[in-house]
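[retry 2/3] Copper(I)-binding protein: previous attempt timed out, resubmitting with same input.
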Amino acid sequence: MFKNVMLLAALLLPASFASAHEYNVGELHIAHPWSLALPPNAPNVAAYFVIDNKGNEADRLLSVDTPISDRSELHEHVMKGDVMRMQQVPNVVVPAGGQVTFSPSAYHVMIMQPKDRSLLADGKRFPLTLHFEKAGDVTVEVAVQKQPPEGTSVHQH
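[retry 2/3] Copper(I)-binding protein: success.
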């Protein structure tokens, strides 16, 4: 019986690693960077993740970059009157002991005019480097998915 349980655990282990990927830099923890597969006519793609700050001091995400594009920007969605609009932001504060969620209709990374669209197909991954004021740089792998993770709502604009 124990042998069967261990075999089952060994078989399931790679599946759990395949879907969840997490990174640490300083006191920051970055969970499951993801992006939706790029539709054929879309000029840009967005990347999403969650940053937890386990430290006693705030940090700031200053910028991002990726080799798949010459330009990547930090953006947020804001309400202007009755309309939700996207706008670039100079940085994103990650509060001490707090969390910032990059998700559709919130903060997100806009990757402009990707060079190799084949890297943005379901099941692929691409590197994204996050530059923090205090924690420094961390390169994460963004998982390209056909569907957003469970519990994530995506509003098309």
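[retry 2/3] Copper(I)-binding protein: Residues 22-145 form a domain with the Immunoglobulin-like fold (CATH 2.60.40.1890).
[retry 2/3] clearing retry counter.
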